[in-house]
TrEMBL record:
SMART domains: HDc. It comes from the Bacteria. InterPro entries: CheY-like_superfamily, Cyclic_di-GMP/3'3'-cGAMP_PDE, DUF3369, HD/PDEase_dom, HD_GYP_dom. Residues 318-516 form the HD-GYP domain. This is DUF3369 domain-containing protein. Gene3D superfamilies: 3.40.50.2300, Hypothetical protein af1432. It comes from Anaeromonas frigoriresistens.
Amino acid sequence: MSIEKLFKMDKPFNPIEILNKDEVWKILIVSDEEKLHKISSIVFTDFRFHGKKVEFINAYSFDTGVKEITNNSDIAVVIIDIMIGNDILGLELVKYIRKYLNNKYTRIILQSSKSEELRKKDIILNYDINDYKGKEELTSLNLFTGIVTALRGYKDITIIEENRKLLKKIMEISNKLYSLGSEEEFVSTLLFDIISVLDMADNNKENCSRGFIVGKKKYQNDFKIVESTHDYKHFLDKDIQSLSDSKILKYINIVAEQQYSLFKENVFVLYLDNQNEKKHIIYIDTEVDISIFDRELVRLFYNNVVMAFENLNLYNEIEDTQREIIYTLGEVAEARSESEIGNHVKRVAMYSEILAQKFGLSREEVKIVKMASPIHDVGKIAIPDDILLKPGKLTISEFEYMKKHAKLGYEMLKNSKREVLKAAAIIAHQHHEKYDGTGYPQGLRGEKIHIYGRITGIADVFDALLSRRVYKNPWKVENVIDLMKKEKGKHFDPILVDILLENIDEMLEIYEIYGD
């Protein structure tokens, strides 16, 4: 489905709406002459610019002017008398605003006396002001024209700056979405990202936007609420029909049926489909009507969301294919040395995932360990059948030959440039090393053994002890636990032994679900 079809817009985008959030335009007048203050208040009585009144802030000294411009960052226009008292302090105030406060947005109108007329060109060129008027020019009409022109300039530059900030935020969030690795994480993050963009657009300090996400797999009849803000938290994991608001249900049903996003009053509902297994609908409402600017903003953001989501689905499809190939390769290696093909490699992958998570590895490293561990014994493919399939105990020379499978697996995988296969090479090489240095093939000790090797090593032994083999019967759980305790700090990393025993119920549940 094209992105254009995802949205129905009922009128064109008008960026001026962003400016209607503040109640007044603030104008600061800095002059020790009462005349300028009085004329300004008279000329602008009952005046409105883009729906907002003008508020004058009067400063009669340089110090008061500094205080007001410092405390009011939202002043739109400042009119400065170049002569304040007997000194040319107006130019110092211009410098203070532009250089010290780094305020490039407030429009500055400078008023001069006749004595400064000779310096007029020099002042215009060397000071960052927006207008320059002599006192004899300051009629009511000239004052009105100057201030309205300045307000218009402030309005335009404010829109540009707000748009720049919002676009920067959208790009930052979009880049983050591209880095997410799972659909669940993507969808969960998305709700709060859209709300944060909306609240920023509305300068909304009270965070009045709220919402939830519903999801449905192909085989499910109804949507379930999978993520929500606090207001809808009590509906989490419940069927969409549990919502008592018939309007919300109506909007969601329309979007689900017609597969496009819509806006209605202070609500918008976004449609997201991975064209495979799941559909998601994002519902958000606000306490204020959604402006045309906000709709256009969400449309821009949502275009990026759709592309990021499609990219994630493609990545996941490639990753699933890679995982399936690795599992198959691991099962082929296992099948050569066992009497029947089981789920050993899948269980090792799942044990390894838990151990890696609890050990504190990063999300990416956890994923790599889980994907790479199934081919820990890939080197057995190169071991002769008379050794690999021997039902009895191996001779010393046969066992020495069998130990070569660790190095052979490493040699098969070491030249890959793929992160998963590089990790698999390490695991194949080191999963028979022992923490006390008595393992093989290198006799590595302690943390010299890569964490990937230490994790897969304990996962492999744990599963092998619980499982039936041609040369042994399965061990009882209590005997496996006793061995783990006995080999803590000897065969196995002591930290990993503690993690395994602390999560023994979860480990045994995996064995039960994926038993041979």
